Amino acid sequence: MNIVQTKTYTTIDYNLKEILRYSGVAKTTPEINNLIESCIQELDGKLSYKVCYKAFPISSHLTNNNSNTPLLDLGFTTTHSTDLIKNLESCNSIILFGATIGLEIDRLIAKYSSSSPSRALILQAIGAERIESLCNAFNKDISTEQQALGNNTKPRFSPGYGDLDINFQKDIFEALNCSKHIGLTLNESLLMSPSKSVTAIIGVCPS
Known about the structure:
This protein is an alpha+beta fold. 42% of the residues lie in helices and 24% in strands. It has helices at residues 16-23, 30-43, 82-87, 104-115, 117-148, 168-176, 178-182; strands spanning 5-9, 49-57, 59-62, 70-73, 78-79, 93-100, 151-153, 185-186, 192-193, 197-206. Strands 1-2-6-10-7 form a 5-stranded antiparallel sheet. Strands 3-4-5 form a 3-stranded antiparallel sheet, with no helix packed on it. The radius of gyration is 19 Å and the shape is elongated.
């Protein structure tokens, strides 16, 4: 895989438990269930599940600094992140990806933020559940593909996790050209637009 590839999903099942968790609701009620269902209906046909991704070979070696901190070469950039190095232990390649569910949910959250805060809150929770479910679906597909090749995959790892600096986003966006492939942009404050988006690394290692 020497080019950036894209993948789209038409439908992904909703996870009510996760929506409730993201909304901070400890116990559901008929009113909350009705509000969630109403929000899901309003979102019907408005979400765009898109992923762009590319494979890179990786390697690590010790640097000559005083701490002998390993340097991980990810194929598109390098890092000293000990948490990422641990996550990618025994891996010889990665799948780098960016995922988004589109701008429409951001527009609806903004629309209801003043007129109906409770609806905006539920839409926020649904957005968080949707992008997580998209990443899970993509993860599952990659794992299935890699298993067919005799490989295993590691849990995805994103900028901001552990000691992997959020500035790492810049390298990811440059490597994937997310704006061109899925309409995902990064501003100077390192905020992504659409906001319900994720970038991450999936480690691939021989089974």
